[in-house]
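Reopening this one. Same input as before:
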Amino acid sequence: MSEAIQGSSLSEPIGFVGIGNMGAPMAGRLLDAGYALVVFDVSSKAAAPLIARGARQAGSAAEVASLAETVLTSLPTPDIVETVALGEQGVGSGSRIRRLIELSTSGPRVAARVAQGLAAKGITYVDSPVSGGVAGARAGTLAVMVACERTEFDRLQPLLNVIGKPFHVGERPGLGQMMKLVNNLLSGAALAITSEAMLLGAKAGLEPDTMIDVINAGSGRNSASQDKFPKSILPRRFDAGFATRLMFKDLKLCLEEAESLGLTLWVASAVRQLWLKTFNEIGPNEDFTTIMRCVEGSTGIEVRGRAAGSAPTQGRARG
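Same output, byte for byte:
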């Protein structure tokens, strides 16, 4: 059983809003650690497994924040983040909340506005996006990028340890978001360029599983070659658990921040264009590993591992 937040008790409820692909396993880990949990999601079906395990269901984000001093949110888009924080039925309307821990990726500017709006209500905003995917959320190995006062970070560390490894990246709201955008730029670039490299090798006649083994033993290894290709792309499952629209959203936010800082990121701009192509041609709600299908396009090549079976010919022209 985990330690409680410093100065509090495990019996005191923790709020959680947003029970999606990432939120559900994170909330589940809090239950596993012995925390009393009150939850809300716009889909009551999403929250049902947690309710069955003993979590209390609330009827709105505001109700969650009227039952818990500490509320965590895991939400898909910046506009939803802002609405859930500051809207009419948002956590800022709760009567008990003292701090909001925002686990979503919303961008530095939204983080600054939310922090300002909550501060006016006497609520502390903890900018705390996470990285590591659904597998990391289940295993409790997420990187948790926290921007808040150091004393608040120290107070929350036992709670955050339940979902991953927390890093204090600064005190200003938005620095956690900036760290996440930097991370996801590298993640998105790795998946994009590895897809192109694998297509090139397959077209030349190299066997995909062998390519991945060699890359991961050499200097080309990266998060895509080590995780997404062997687990999701080569088996042709495309089930990493993160939507293309979310990856594109993160890259869009990243390039907007670069522009606001007077920077031109040439490679990042090209990466964003490939993700936009995937968004438009494969679909925004498809798993982001389907960028491989976008890269394959009409080439007649399917980068296919042994685990996916033998038809069409592995890694070679179809037909």
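So the earlier flakiness isn't reproducible anymore. For the record, The two ends are 56 Å apart (CA to CA).
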